[in-house]
Design a protein that fits this description.
single chain, about 290 residues, alpha+beta, eleven-stranded mixed β-sheet, five-stranded mixed β-sheet, binds manganese (II) ion
Length: about 290
């Protein structure tokens, strides 16, 4: 099933005929708590699933082009990401970004600010700084239940679903070496979506992947098959450190082909069953 958040964090199922709204199946919430609706749906999935299935088959459906897409995991308590997790990307980064040749397996996760998350409607907004900004296309997974100290063997049972994400990055220079978390946490530097594909439709996550273009140039073509530390490994490693919860988000790392983006570019990422996002790159208006 393809689940999405849209407009003021209404929740829907994205079907062939459009979006079937699910918001009223969830608890009424004050406006400030609306971004938590998907977390509630994930937490109560076993209880709500049959009602959701019934709604999917019933109209009316909203045309997707009429809504503003929000990130399907809008308010993760933990938003984690893997550093170097593809050997070929590690090789291309060994110049300016040399990190000692170590990968996610040795380094573990880093954290991105939740405030960097936006949806597939875009845009990407670059701050007015004389720096290089890079695209990192990635596949993310969303946690489905309380996850503490989980073994690799049990790990995939804790995944609720998968979504495309961009992990946009301001590169360091010789003299400017800010924390990775800050360089990757500008507003709009984590566009995610367009939907969250539930894990029951992904029997083998290594079959997931994507291609990414900047304007018409193919830059990245990646598959989770090539991860250094795979999804079960990432969950085992992270859940040994922090208590993961329904709605938590983990970006699995980027393959080779990372490159710069500039104002005026159009970034397109297509993940097949994960959908596609087309994002314009603009100057941040603030
Ligand atoms: Mn990344």
């Amino acid at each position: 099933m393809r689940l999405l958040a849209f407009d003021d964090y209404r929740i829907g199922a994205w079907e062939e005929d459009g979006i079937h709204e699910l918001t009223d199946l969830l608890s009424p919430v004050p406006t400030h708590a609306a971004p938590l609706r998907m977390n509630e749906l994930i937490s109560r999935w076993d209880e709500l699933r049959s009602a959701v299935e019934a709604r999917r088959a019933r109209g009316p459906a909203l045309p997707p082009e009429t809504v503003r897409l929000r990130p399907p995991a809008a308010l993760p308590r933990n938003f984690l990401a893997a550093p170097l997790n593809y050997a070929e990307h590690g090789a291309e980064m060994m110049g300016p970004m040399a990190s000692g040749g170590t990968s996610a397996k040795e380094m573990g996760f880093f954290v991105k600010a939740g405030g960097s998350l936006t949806g597939a409607s875009g845009p990407i907004e670059l701050p007015d700084r004389d720096r290089r900004f890079d695209h990192e296309g990635e596949v993310a997974f969303v946690i489905g239940r309380a996850t503490r100290g989980v073994s690799r063997a049990a790990a995939l049972g804790h995944v609720f679903g998968y979504a495309l994400i961009l992990d946009l990055t301001m590169r360091m220079t010789e003299t400017e070496r800010e924390e990775r978390t800050m360089r990757k946490s500008f507003h709009s530097f984590s566009p995610c979506g367009p939907w969250l594909l539930t894990a029951d439709e992904v029997p083998d996550p290594t079959a997931l992947g994507f291609r990414l273009w900047v304007n018409d140039e193919l830059r990245q073509d990646g598959s989770l098959r090539d991860l250094i530390l795979d999804v079960p490994g990432l969950i085992e490693q992270a859940s040994a450190v922090v208590a993961l919860e329904p709605g938590d988000l983990y970006a699995t790392g980027t393959p080779a082909g990372v490159g710069p983006i500039e104002v005026g570019d159009v970034v397109r990422i297509d993940g097949g069953v994960l959908g596609a996002m087309q994002l314009t790159v603009e100057r941040r208006p603030w």
